[in-house]
Every structure is written in C-alpha cells, then in structure tokens.
Automatic annotation (TrEMBL):
This is Tetratricopeptide repeat protein. Pfam families: TPR_16, TPR_8. The lineage of its organism: Bacteria, Pseudomonadati, Bacteroidota, Chitinophagia, Chitinophagales. SUPFAM superfamilies: TPR-like. It comes from Chitinophaga qingshengii. Keywords: TPR repeat. TPR repeats lie at residues 76-109, 212-245, 319-352, 425-458. InterPro entries: TPR-like_helical_dom_sf (IPR011990), TPR_rpt (IPR019734).
Length: 577
C-alpha cells in the first residue's frame, strides 16, 4: 500500500504542476460524483495507458495507469500492468509492490502470480520466487514449466540440493530432456559430484548415441576436473564414430602437446586441418596466435606455414585461407610470397579492405612506389572513405617525387581522419617533408609541429624538422632543441649526430660541431655518406684546417655528393655557403 500511495502522490503532483492557474483555483474545481462519468473517465485513462504501453512510452503509461487508480483502486489488472511497466523501466522496488497488490487482489490469476515471481526475481529474492512457483505447481500439477522455474529459482537461491530434487521430479514427468539434464549436471558439478554429473550426461548419450554434442559435453566435464584419461577416451570414442571429427582431433592434439608428444600433436592437428568440413573460421582462429608466437620462436614459422597450407588445400576457393597465409609470410618478411597470397585472396573476394591494406603495406616495404601508386589509386576509388588508401597514395607519390600529388592525397587523408594518433602523426610528418620539398616552409613547419603534438618523441620527425630549419638558417635555437632531443631518444644514430653537428655549425659553434660530426664518423655508414663528409669539410674549413677540409670535400664528391658549390669549394679551397 505504501508504494501505491507514493506513486499516486507523484501523479497528483504532475497533474497539479500542469495547471496554469493560481494554487487556490483547486478549491473551485468540480468534484465528479456521477458513477457513470467516473467509470467513463477511468476507462479512457485505461485505454490511453494501453496505447502508450504498446507504443513503448512506458513512463507515460505509468502516469496514466496511476491516474486511473485515483478513480478506481479496485482493478487488479492495473496493478499487474504497473508491475510489468516498472520492471521495464528498471524500478524493481515499485514493481514488487504492485505485483504483490495484484496477486493479493486476485490470487487465482496465474499471470498475476507469475508476475509476482518475476518481481521477486528482479529484487534478487529467489527463494520467494521459488515459493510462488511451488504454489503454482500445486495448483497446476500438469504444468511442467512451473516445475522447471521452481527448480531454476532454487538453484539461483544457492539451494542446489533442493533444485536437484525438483529437477528429478520433473524428469519423472518428461523423461530424459536435454535442458533438464544440463541443469542437473551443472548443479552436481557445483556440488563437486563429478561422477554423478557425468552419469547425467551419459543418459543423453544412451538416449541418442549418434548425437556427438553430448560426447563433447562429457569430455568438457572430465577436462574441467583434470580427468584427462577419461576425456581422451571420450575423444577416441568420437573418432571411432567419425574418424575425421575435427573437434575430437584438436582435443587429442591439445593433450599431446601438453604431454610434449610432438609427433602425436602434429598428426592429430594436421588431420583436423585437412578436413574441409571443419570451419575455416575456427581454423583461422586456431592458427592466428602463431603470428605472435613466430616472433618469439622461429620453430613456429614452419608449423604456421604448414597449417596455412593445409587450410588452403582444404578451402581453395575461400579468400580467408590466402589472406591468412599472406599474413604468415608477411610476418617473417617473405614479401613476395605474402604479395602472391594477398593478390589471390583479392581475386576471390575484393570486398575486404584489410587485405588491400596489407598489400599496400607490402608494396611500401618492398619500396615499389609505382606498384604502390597503382594499387592505392584502385583502393581510393573502391574505398573512398578509407583513410589508409589516401595515406599510402601519398607515400607512393612522395617516393616518386610527385610532391603536389603527395600533398593532395595526404590532405584528403586528414579530411577523412583516423582514430589513431600514430597514423595522423605519420600523415603530418610526411606532409612536412612534402611541403619542404615544394618550398612551402610555413606549411612544412606547421605540419611538423602538429606531428610532434601527436607524437612528441618521434626521433625521425625531430631530426627532419630540425635539419630543414638549419638548412634555411631559421629558428636555430628551436632546431638545436629538437635535434638534441632526437639524440636523447636514439643516442647511437650517426644521422642524428650529423644533423646536430650541422645545426651547431650554423650557430657558429664550430668546435662543438666538430665533436659531434667526428662522433658520427666513428660509424662505417657515416664514412660512406657524402653529405656527412661534406659537412665535415665545411666545419674543418671554418676551424682553419683548409687542407683537411679540401680532403673531405673531395671524398664527398667521390662518394657522389652533388650539392651546389662543392666543385667550387674544392677548386677555390674555400667554404661557399
């Protein structure tokens, strides 16, 4: 009753609040006394509530049913409806109050009793819900659903023994039924009665010996309780009925692996994968972890490739088989084989963008810009809303020194956007390079700054940005700061040492510049780099060591340096900026 009064009070407040006149106007409202008029108005509210409920407007329906109760408090159906609605809006306390009222007013209505049980359940009062169904089973002994629900609520109330007794009573009525047996074995396992649980499942097997699902259910029971010999025996039994059963073969393969029997493990596994009726999706899920394992254990490479070979053989018309094999080859840097498999996958199913992406990635790793450009053009036409298509198009154009096309493609990628900072930083970094190549220095600097906001510790961006600033002789303090940070991140990079040395040179800090470039020249790759050699010559000249400066300028020329003024430096033996 308390819940009922609370709801009516709320409804009354809503009605009062809706009035636009002064508060004392309520005193002059006409009180309806005619029973016929009251009944007509109540009926109108009832049907309005029904319509709101059918439209899914549950809160409006609650208000309308509550208004109905102000006119007629003796209709149990309305309390029932309110109980169901409060369950819909997840107000379990109110639902239970109204359900109790409906069940009390009309105890013979089994729908009201079921709603009361539901209300007890949403309030986590499972014992009480079970009691309601106990009463219903006594009143309707032929109804098996009531008996089942009683058992389920007893189980939820953590009374497994009582629930088992009810399920046994139900089984006497129904015979062996899968759902009942499943619930019984679950309760028995909860009570640590493994043999009894297994005996229940064997009832299903005895009742239908051709249904292999029951064998696997029994094997799971044994496996979960570390009874490996019994589980293995079940799998062997399955194989006698179905010699190519993949699930049984995989189960035995797992046990063989755990016992370090590699020969048996591989024999069972390959038999399973050779079965074309074994789902390719399950095979892919099984093999996919090899992509991670191959990085840690080189012996897994051969296994992974062999398994993918079996998948391809069993599913020669399925693109997933070739895509997975492409992933395997890509993981171990066998790029030609990866490309071949990705191409085959696309010939079977061209709708999967992920495969197009992998193929573009392969071309970029193979440094084949012409192929990458042709492929990315196809991808951007086929998938115009995919960010990575335009990114790779920009990469290809940049490698081909088509800088305006690079800028267009990368700005389109930015327009589409990506949820990952890494990719957005890559775009901004490459844009910085492309804008620099076209002399658009302000845009270049802005792109680098945005890249560093996204990825402040990207040593490559720090190096490139600082080097380009030094070439222009602009903002050299900022360039030095960026270059120094790149060396903190990668202290053994001769390229970054050369950049820092050159910035110091542009700041007229010649001794410091000499220190860093000589550190760079300790690395063999720097000794073969014409730019580093020329920079060293420039630094030496400004330290008054002209002979050695000319020597290194000549070395730079011999290594292929083509900078403007190098020939004059050598001929005139002086530094030319």
């Amino acid at each position: 009753m308390r819940v009922f009064l609370t709801v009516i009070g709320v409804a009354g407040i809503l009605i009062t609040g809706a009035c636009s006149g002064p508060k004392n106007s309520l005193r002059h409202q006409t009180v309806i006394k005619d029973p016929a008029v009251l009944e007509q108005r109540a009926d109108s509210l009832f049907f309005a509530a029904q319509r709101s409920k059918m439209l899914g407007d549950f809160r409006t329906a609650i208000t309308q049913y509550s208004d109905y109760l102000r006119l007629n408090k003796n209709n149990p159906t309305v309390y029932y409806e309110l109980a169901r609605l409060f369950m819909e809006v997840q107000n379990p306390g109110y639902a239970l109050g109204f359900a109790r009222r409906a069940a009390t007013m009309d105890p013979d209505n089994h729908w009201f009793q079921i709603t009361l049980a539901d209300a007890f359940a949403v309030n986590q009062q499972f014992d009480s819900a079970a009691t309601v169904f106990d009463k219903l089973t006594r009143r309707y002994p032929e109804n098996e659903d009531y008996l089942y629900n009683k058992a389920m609520f007893l189980a939820k109330a953590n009374r497994p023994a009582a629930a088992l007794a009810v399920f046994a009573q139900l089984e006497e009525k129904t015979g062996v039924v899968e759902e009942v047996i499943y619930q019984k074995q679950r309760l028995l396992l909860k009570m640590s009665q493994v043999d009894a649980a297994a005996a229940e499942i064997r009832k299903l097997i005895d009742n239908n010996p051709q249904e292999l699902r029951y064998y696997f259910l029994l094997a799971e029971v044994y496996d979960a309780n570390d009874r490996v010999p019994e589980a293995k025996a079940i799998f062997q039994d399955v194989l006698r009925k179905d010699p190519d059963n993949a699930r049984a073969l995989l189960g035995l393969a797992t046990y063989a692996r755990k016992s370090n029997d590699k020969t048996a493990y591989w024999a069972f596994l390959t038999r399973a994968f050779a079965n074309p009726t074994y789902s390719i999706d399950e095979k892919v899920a099984y093999v996919y972890p090899y992509l991670q394992m191959m990085q840690l254990d080189s012996t897994k490479v051969e296994e992974g490739l062999e398994l993918t070979s079996l998948i391809v053989k069993a599913h020669p018309k399925d693109a997933k088989a070739y895509a997975l094999r492409g992933d395997m080859y890509s993981q171990v840097d066998m790029l030609d084989s990866a490309q071949q498999n990705y191409t085959k996958a696309l010939s079977l199913d061209s709708s999967r963008f992920s495969v197009w992406y992998q193929l573009m990635w392969i071309y970029s790793r193979k440094e084949d810009p012409n192929a990458l450009q042709a492929l990315s053009n196809t991808v951007t036409e086929k998938f115009p809303q995919e960010f990575m298509g335009y990114y790779f198009k920009g990469v290809a154009s940049f490698l081909l020194q088509q800088y305006p096309a690079t800028i267009n493609a990368l700005n389109k990628a930015l327009e589409i956007g990506s949820g990952e900072k890494k990719f957005m930083a890559d775009v901004q970094s490459l844009l910085g390079d492309a804008y620099h190549a076209t002399g658009q220095h302000q845009q270049s600097d802005s792109s680098y700054e945005r890249a560093l906001l996204l990825r402040p510790d990207d040593a490559l961006v720090l190096n490139n940005y600082s080097y380009y600033l030094s070439l222009r002789g602009e903002n050299l303090n900022r360039a030095a700061e960026l270059s120094k940070r790149s060396l903190e991140l990668e202290p053994d990079s001769p390229t970054y040492m050369d950049t820092y040395a050159w910035i110091l040179f542009r700041q007229d800090k010649f001794e410091d510049a000499r220190h860093w470039i000589e550190k760079a020249l300790e690395f063999p790759e720097a000794q073969q780099n014409p730019n580093v050699l020329e920079h060293y010559g420039d630094i030496l000249f400004n330290l008054k060591d002209v002979t050695k400066a000319v020597e290194y300028w000549q070395k730079a020329k011999d290594k292929g340096a083509t900078s403007v003024g190098l020939v004059r430096k050598i001929a005139e033996k002086k530094y030319i900026q």
